[in-house]
């Protein structure tokens, strides 16, 4: 039998009997604090387990009803699967009833039931009036089709029927995704003597095992889940939908706060700018100005910031607006996360909505930005993948799927199709939008062409240098594109250099005659050559080209470097080596070489040292010996 785990929120106005109802359902009093017991209201979140049959386990969250503690209420309902909206029979709909309903609607809660409490305190004929009032209030909300139950939590009249209906109702509520990466927004932090830091929250998605290494965001610190508890019972595994306490190793309680998030992967985004679709309440008292102050409630986090509008300068109540939230402190978010937006002063709920892109960039004011945000919001799965890649340039499969807000199965199928049709390219471990690849390849082509124009005597641009030119796209992506263009034959590799496919190093047209004159002089002078500086000056080669020409002649093996700023023509060098090989003994001395080549020490010593450097000869006692039996290919033809 498959176990099913759910979280139910109990919401409603202060003193409407939420805590008493929770106790009637679970036999647990969720008013945990002394202050709560004395004041008779819930300040913090209260939790209690409820088992409905053998296969359904429920965490019930009793959220505060007082307006002053609305932030705790939002933190509590952010992770629920079904809500019980509580209305006291003796008071009916009250201000926090309405605000809680608004918040539930804005957070995208889809399943709910209405519970009328304290039915023992009103006459029977008032029940129908209360039901009518509730029906009018929930019209047009997700609660419109909800059933209404009448209970007396003290005598438990109606509680059994409510439990039975809850069990059947939850059969139609889909379970949270336990296949994706683990995420647990933290709403409570405390310590226990001898155990250390404990955090508590509802697992939003995925699963966690005892002993697993997790990351605490936005701090970015690795921690270990030393022990897991679900409703005070130690468990080796906790899954999406379960109310869970985690004993953390490797961190102190002072480093953790409500609003932090435990995750199992690096794919989650820590951000201070969110592109969002915001639904505003028609009941807000004052318009929200451009860059006006806001308070964001996301998961269990509560942060201040400003709203940035792209198609208006103030925001009135009612309707949807695409905008950006720029935050004072980082939050952890992913595409599709629901949030609530409140005004800090005067305090009121402005609206709520959905995160379109957790990595919001600066956008220009105007219709183009609205069009772009609309495309990101409304696009098909494949369009969302492509749009994400356009913005992020390159991502591994798992991060792309997560940022596009898709399931792993759906994401991998869409990626497969996009790669097959050529819209997306796979470069090593990265996925890249074809347009981005083409843009980078064009930049690369322009840089290589420019390099050839400036340095026509060189074989090409150094690979490290071209990667640096593309660094704006990121080092990993730049390297991947360079390798792809080389393997595809767009460019050619010459050692550590990259060149255009048809490029052959050669003399620039305006200096070709003078550079060829240098060749002629070198060829004519043989071994007894002037220093290279005198030769290029004699030929009229401009100063900026002289060193380029020298390297070119050596690199193309037209000349040989004899040191002390002397180059000799390669043919003259080879001929001299061949003559020595024929006429000098196997072990020869300086005088033997001088007798054969008729050269002064000025030219002879550098020649013999170059032969040593090329592995043709080696020093032996006071002379040299041929080592062609070690490497005969080093010898020129004789």
Automatic annotation (TrEMBL):
The keyword GTP-binding applies. Keywords: Cytoplasm, Elongation factor, GTP-binding, Nucleotide-binding, Protein biosynthesis. GO terms for biological process: selenocysteine incorporation. One of its GO terms (molecular function) is RNA binding. Residues 3-175 form the Tr-type G domain. InterPro entries: Beta-barrel_SelB, EF-Tu_GTPase, EFTu-like_2, Elong_fac_SelB-wing-hlx_typ-2, G_TR_CS, P-loop_NTPase, SelB_WHD4, Small_GTP-bd. It is found in: Cytoplasm. GO terms for cellular component: cytoplasm. This is Selenocysteine-specific elongation factor. It comes from Evansella caseinilytica. Translation factor necessary for the incorporation of selenocysteine into proteins. It probably replaces EF-Tu for the insertion of selenocysteine directed by the UGA codon. SelB binds GTP and GDP. The keyword Hydrolase does not apply.
